[in-house]
Amino acid sequence: MTKPLFRRVNLGALTLTIACSGLGAFGQDQAEPAKPAQGAEQTPDKQAAKLVFVEMTTSEGDIILELDRGRAPVSVKNFLEYVNEGFYNGTIFHRVINGFMIQGGGFAKDMKRKTTKSPITNEWQNGLKNDIGTIAMARTSDPNSATSQFFINVNNNASLTPPPGRGVGYAVFGKVVAGMDVVNAIKATQTTTKNGMQNVPVTPITIDKTTVISAEDAKKLMSGTKTKAPQQEG
Q: What is the pTM of this model?
């Protein structure tokens, strides 16, 4: 059988090795896997209590995120700190690869990198997979280097959640529950190379505002009605 050819793609906080014959192949530096998340089975009510909702307003439309702090407490806490501080407001989706993912949360519209908090622990073995519509932490080849940048999967990227002993994956901490049409519009945007970075949208796609909302208000947005006043979560 002919071995596939691979090419390495530098995505800033996310470094990829993509098979030239198709998407899905992904190479990682070998590292000691993180320990699996521990804990007893949760009832549906307890699981629901651990969900947090965020409304992300972009230049292409609104995206509603459901974050799972039961399975990814460190990643969700980190993301919410950036949300509540307004860190993401005015940032851009700086990496867009149709058929793979859209990445944002680290650069301003002028392509200047924003100063972040300290890196967090990689929670990739939490049982959440890098499937279409999930949101995960972007990082470098260092497994525990994630800070503010995230990506939304636009393909079922099984290689980003490798089996034990096959490298270290990327921590999923939630999913899109409304606004996948917006995600799909973003993934289809024309890209170019800018400031030495590849796959940058020709026309900047901005994250105008991120807001924590209640589960009730999230349901209303999912059904097409307007949200009420925002709430803060930590």
A: 0.79
